[in-house]
Amino acid sequence: AYVAAAERDDVVSMKYLHQRGCPWHEKTISTAIMRGSVRCLHYAYAYMRDGTLPLECMKKAAEAGQIPVMQFLHKIGIPYDKLIYTTAANLAVVKHLRGIGC
Fold it and tell me: Is 80 exceeded by the pLDDT of residue 82?
């Protein structure tokens, strides 16, 4: 159910599920990243597991071309690095990385 909510960018449903004690699904975060759902990613980050996200999330966001997700991940402490260029999905991601000095 969490994955379906992330696919729809439906943070209201995620909150509903969480408030009723539904268990998180391991693919919730990756689905939110691939979908570009910063709202669902933010909610999952705040309440899922221990409140941390692995560094591979930035790679997934770059692969998906999700610049707003990349910006959110960076804001919460996941670093950009030069290796991320190898996974950049499109020119917009490369330009974003160049624009921030990466």
Answer: no
